[in-house]
Write a structure and sequence with these properties.
CATH architecture of the domain at 12-56: 2-Layer Sandwich
CATH superfamily of the domain at 12-56: YegP-like
Distance between the termini: 39 Å
Structural class: alpha+beta
Helix content: 25-40%
Number of strands: 3
Strand order of the largest sheet: 1-2-3
CATH topology of the domain at 12-56: Double Stranded RNA Binding Domain
Largest sheet: 3 strands, antiparallel
Order of helices and strands: HEEEH
């Protein structure tokens, strides 16, 4: 089973530049967009910093109902 998991594609963050010259990130998995940045960032480095922050805190993320604060 571990060998199969090692061969599976991993989700990947991609940083894209908008027509306005701002940067956004997208999280892709096997051709599917799983998540996108809600905000635009002024530089590629700012978008990359946000991705690094997300990677640090996501293991602790919980699940809440849509009507929860």
């Amino acid at each position: 089973m571990a060998a199969l998991l090692d061969r599976m594609p991993r989700p990947t963050f991609r940083i894209i530049e908008t027509d306005a010259g701002e940067f956004r990130w997208r999280l892709h998995d096997d051709g599917t967009v799983l998540a996108t940045s809600g905000d635009a960032y002024p530089t590629r480095q700012a978008a990359a910093r946000r991705i690094q922050r997300l990677k640090r805190v996501l293991p602790e993320a919980g699940i809440a109902a849509a009507d929860s604060p």
